[in-house]
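tool_call: predict_structure(chain=1)
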Amino acid sequence: MIVGVGGSAGSLTPLRQLFSALPTDSDLAFVVVSHQAPTGQSLLPEILAKTTQMPVCEIQDETKALPNHVYVLPRGYSLTVHDATLAIEPIGEPGRVSLPIDHFFHALARDRGPRAVGIVLSGTGSDGTLGLAAIRAAGGLCLAQDPATAEFDGMPASAIAAQAADFVLPVGVMPARLLVHARAIRAGHGVDLAGFSSRELERILTLIRVRGGHDFTAYKPDTLVRRIERRMGLHGIESLGDYVRYLEANDEEIGALWRDWLIGVSSFFRDPEAFAALAAALPPLLAARAADRRLRVWVPGCATGEEAYSIAIVVLEALKALREHVDLQVFATDLDPSAIQTARAGRYPKTIAEVVGAQRLGRFFVEEEHGYRAKKDLRERIVFAVQDALYDPPFTRVDLISCRNLLIYVVPSAQQALLSTFHYALSPGGLLLLGASEHVGASTDSFSMLDKRWRLFRRNDSSGQAPFRWRPWAFHAKREGAVPTRAERPKVDLTETLRTCLAERFGPPAVVVDLQGQIRQTHGRVGAYLELSPGRANLNILDMAREGLRAPLASALREITKAGATTVEKDLRLKGADGGRQALRLTVGRIEGRRLPSPLLLISFEPASPRRAASRARKPSSKGRRPERAQLEEDLQHLREDLRMSVSDLQATNEELASANEEVQSANEELQSSNEELQTSKEETQSLNEELQTVNAELTEKLRGLEQANDDLLNLMTNIEVATIFLDDRLRVKRFTPQARSVARLIDSDVGRPLADLAALVDYPDLLADAGRVLASLRPMEKQASAPGGVWYTVRIRPYRTTRNAVEGLVVTFIDITETKRAERGQAALLLAESILDAVHEPLLVLDATLRVARANRSFYQEFRVEPKETEGRPLAALGSRQWDAPRLRSLLEATLRDGVAFEAFELVHEFPHLGRRRMVLSGRPVAMQDDEKPVLIVLGIQDAGPASAALRGEDVEA
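tool_result:
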């Protein structure tokens, strides 16, 4: 197994944490890819070598990745891997966006598949997000550092937002998770595909369907089992039964499993040649459609939306090239609500720049701090909705369907159901774009191929019959058509079997017909009584009756249907196949039953007993007639009766048919017209209903966003504590913040009133005039105004601009600058005080609360010949030759600060530098910043009283 570790230049600390916690016998090969300057020598190998006992080396070209080794990508190179061999190549031109982590992770996913591991550590940007998604789709393990523990959370946060990470962990926990996964991969779980109908796997599908709300019986069993095996490896579970119990106890794992089954990996302009083929096929499609009809596109299985945005961009570029002004509507659907949420946001990492291109980025995207966002014009053309393409109704009258890499994951019958749905949804001549590994299969008559390499098809013109909807069995086995298990077989009811056996053994030959004489079912050998007539096959019993049977049979049917009899019996003699006569009992009776869709008749043919036949043969001879003549007369009589009844029935029937034919013809025309109208109305209603559902979902989402924006705006207006009044273009009040009541007499009912009618509490008589000037010139204006109580405001008047840069009024803000004004006055007072100090001829010192010199005037520096740097900020006692270090003076100064009492005429005699022995008279005045505060400063005045006599000695002399 190869573990790819990606981070920015600031990921050194988590790299140290990771490798210091890893054992040296994990049998894993580690490859570190970090963002570094392209030139210079990297010190990363030496730094990592100090944190782990595994060999750490810089990658050279064609380096075999060995277990228990750490490989570091050198500066200025990108990295690929093939057959566990690392290969480097110089990075391209300097201006190109470099994504070394994504580049390596994609190569690692292709080469190692389930044996690949990707880790994203601290870093800025979004490099590594798409690479992690590729590893996850290949069945590998993906880890991201917990953003709360990352110094730079951009890269791990991007991977988490894209749902590309299996686990979000602190770096210190990652080694344990890696070792569990490595043991699971080495051991293997061996989930048997042949046991897919086992109770555990049935339970998994049932849990997903019941708790997750999704039915995955249409997916190929081997795909499902591989993802189950992957999830078992992630959690270190070795038994399928244990994993079922884990699922039953963790709803989060159920959601993670069915999202794993979806394999929702997507990117912008995946397979650029496929989009080029689509762009070449669009002009004929656009030329064949009606000019006033909206161009409709459906992208099922859109994942996080990259495919839908790519399709929309290609179509818009084709429309621009053809100078066509067509309204485009793209319907993008997926089964994963979180993926649809990401698609609706339309925000993608900066790594898309390499595949989208600078020109398309500038036209269709807006650059933000952490990535790119789809522009409003592109975003509003796409409607995203949650949909299951197998079960939910499709969109109709669609011109283009792009469904790539969805069919390969479902069983053949579900594939045909989806293709039938796509054929029904597409308009005649519409385009179908499939993945490079997909085909239309048995639906070749429904689609004609335009591009064999990139699976681009055109819908053939045929009847828009309703699509074949896929209906799964209770559980789908590996091979379709698997028989139910023993537990699924129902109990056997032998009632019908017994009736069938008895009828076959003891019942006479019989047929079941409807009231029109059409044979529904036969029983026994009826060939002696019925035969097929020449020509087109006809199952009407009267047409099939043999000679001598048709007339009595027709008579019996008339009695049953018109006279209302329940049973009719007739004895007759029927000419047999050998030319002889046979006695026959014909019985016609009704079949009663509530479950029968229409009334049925049972006609049985029972040969008469020889005694009854003999009695019928002796009966005419008793009258002196020969048997042959009597038989002929009897047959003739039967024929006359049949003929008379047939003629009568034929006349009545002809009259009824003539009348009925006219009515049916008229009704048929009306029904045909109505049917066409209903079919059209049904399609339009169904399409409208689907659009309404998707638009409703979109509007619901936008409404939630609007509510959130309103809440944010309300909280912002309430908490910024700035009085603000919003005016419309007629200078009428639209809205105001609660603080606005402090600058004008406003109540809730004042909304809609003109600004001129409001009583302002601010001294700004030109407010109305200035507002009019700003509205006319669109140039902001700012002035200061006072209010009662010594309050001052900065009044700013600015245009109110909408998202479309239209001006629809003004925004007037009143910012409280009272404290600023006070500070300005205090600054002015300070400047005045300093000017006064410098103007006084007597030396003065300003001492702070610690008796340090805060300020000295010009006379002090001139008198004692010192510099400011020798004086200001230093303790009074440390100035000069410590001439001011007198205990009595210190006591007086401390009392002044403590009690706020001034002192006068304190004399101090000392040998001053440059002055000699002098007598100084000092006085102190306390200074407080506020009236009720203690003194914080002392102004110390110094008066030179002249030379001191030699007789005066000591530290100080009190006046």
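agent: Residues 272-459 form a domain with the Rossmann fold fold (CATH 3.40.50.150). Proceeding to next step.
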